[in-house]
Amino acid sequence: MNQIARRRTMSAASFSWALAAFVSLSSVFSPVFSPVFSSTVSAQTPPVGPPPADTTRPPVVGGIAAPADPLRGNPATMSSLGSQARTMQDGFERNHRTGLRFYNGGADASCEVPLGRICYWNNNGDVPPPAERNDAKLERDQLLDLLAQAQAADPKDDWVNGMRVRYAIESEQRDVAIRAARACKGTQWWCEALEGLALHNANQHKDATTAFARALASMPVAQQCTWTDLSWWLDPTTHAAYKATPCASRSAENMRVMRLAQPLWMIPSNDIQNELYARRTMSRVHSLARIPYDLQWGDDLLESQIRYGWPTAWSVQNGGVADPRPPSVIGHEPTPSYDFMPTVEAIAKPLSATPGDWNPKRQKARMRYAPRFATGFGALPNQFARFLRGDTTIVAGGYRLMRELEMGRAPYTAALTLDAFDGREPRQAMRDSAQANGALLLPVPSPMLASLEVLAPVGKRAARVRTVITPLPAGTRLSEYLLLQRGDVSATPMLERNALQAYGSNEIEGGTSIGIYWEMYREVSPGQPLQVSLRATRVGAGFLQKLGSSFGLSKSVTPVSIKYNDNGRPDGGPGRSLNINFPQVPAGDYQLTLMVSGAGTTDSTTQVIRVKGGK
Asked: What is the pLDDT of residue 614?
């Protein structure tokens, strides 16, 4: 959401943004424009003055009118229906603004990002905006009917083409928006951009990417440079170096940034890149005509929409009974929205990234995005384990859909993608109709950034984790282990079979039974058995607790201790599996170590298991 500045202190809300622009509410409130800055930061309240100039007319500077915007159309050549549509659009927005309902949320929000005349705050956790009035919906539908007639009369009218796509999107008529964009016969880049906007809004990612690529290719070079500029999304510490790079040479940098920022790598095209171009397109549409803020279009409105998206709902809010100023208009962007930009370090060195390099709840975010394919986005509980197939490392990416993720009912789509960021095609394993937990397998030929993702189309929720995976060292004799829902009791446990019933996380409940799968890459036989031990030890246990555990007096310190001789499998295969009964113990972290000894050589692998609940 958004509002312009009343000097009142507001505490930070959760994560959505609000922009509040002061407006004149003619015929209901005083025509005086009273800006409001909802902020805890220092800001000067703009002076009271006359209503803003009509945004449909070119500005006058020094007595000389600025060149007319070519997308507005020429009054001397436009069709009579096109002229009527312009008049109706202006009247619709005036009536729309006058009839906006009051918003009951946002009272505790604080200004996090001041942008010129406006201010944004994170508002994901606040109450939703009020429903739009039915008469406004009817008037928009009437406007859309006239715009359709005007477009049919003159499909080269760029203004009409843009407005028809805009209002079809506002009324959630996705198919109408696509048809309107494809009926456009005006300026080529404009028609292509409108089609990209409509397709992106309909989650048609590949087609949107194609349309935006055509738009960029056909627009003037200077404009192309502006549209592909990522500065507003980047950390300010990188701006100087980014700007110093010629626009024509930024392609590789832009591709890396947008790849790292892409919410889900399972999506066939980069939707966050499409979102950037969609915001550019919608902002250009908004610059052509009146919008509910009734502000002269300027760089602050442009920056706010490029960084946080365009409003999809509107309301009004006042400062309370003691505030004599007229209410301000609030624009509500889609929620929940997230900061998908990685850290500066991850952008510079993707193959050194950790899960912590993505923080969707970052304060004062440079950008936010609410994917249309998922209204919720969470951190995915996971477990990664590596195994050998000859000289090749296989990674098992396990996931588990916890209740807290609110993923809803099946089906789910799970995907594991590996990207080396060296020009090679990423590797991907995808599973449709996936279970709520399991593991996906992929070979890892070199260090690669892994993105493990789950999408719930019914619940419209998504979850992911990203981390770097490296191959196992040459000569590895013992793999890492994969936790299972239950141990494989067969004589020939196989990774591919057990991956389907992977537990999917290193976080378990106390008093539960889980399985474990691992592989050994060394000779073993009844004549030369190997000694296997599996031991869980509480992390942070004191000396006396450990001493008591060594005498078998404290199960809370060493809840698991298993030893046996391994005489080898009948078929000589490397896979092993067993069940573990993890008793009720205090909640906390436990180091689970698997150790294999024989012929004077010992190998071990350790992971930290977090026990929830407990005694």
From this structure: 59
Structure tokens at 192: 């292509």
My answer on whether 151 and 281 are in the same domain is: yes
Tell me, yes or no, whether 497 and 467 share the same domain: no
pLDDT in tens, 135-172: 999 999 999 999 999 999 999 999 999 999 999 999 99
Q: Same domain for 380 and 310?
A: no
Q: How many domains does the chain have?
A: 3
Tell the residue number behind the tokens 């807290």, with chain if given. 404
Q: Where residue 507 sits, what CATH number does that domain have?
A: 2.60.40.2550
pTM of the full predicted structure? 0.88
The 10 Å Cβ neighbour count of residue 394 is: 20
What distances in angstroms separate CA 322 from CA 33, 319, 325, 326, 543, one per listed residue?
18, 7, 9, 12, 64
For position 58, what pLDDT does the model report? 46
Beta carbons of 159 and 71 less than 8 angstroms apart: yes
| Inside any domain, residue 292 | yes
Same-domain pairing of 421 and 300: no
Q: Which residues contact 495 (CB under 8 A, 6 or more apart)?
A: 387, 394, 396, 441, 482, 517, 519, 575
614 Rama sector, left if φ>0, alpha if ψ -120 to 50, beta otherwise = left
pLDDT beneath 50: ranges in the chain:
4-66, 543-544, 546-553
Residue type at 348?
A
83 near 149, Cβ under 8 Å?
Answer: no
Residue with tokens 């944004």: 120
Residue 10 tokens, joined: 């507001």
User: Which pair of tokens denotes residue 499?
Assistant: 């991956």
| Domain CATH code at residue 412 | 2.60.40.10
Q: What is the pLDDT of residue 110?
A: 72
440 plus 490 within the same structural domain: no
Are both 467 and 580 inside the same structural domain?
no
DSSP letter for each residue of 262-296: -S-TTSSS-HHHHHHHHHHHHHHHHTTS--TT-PP
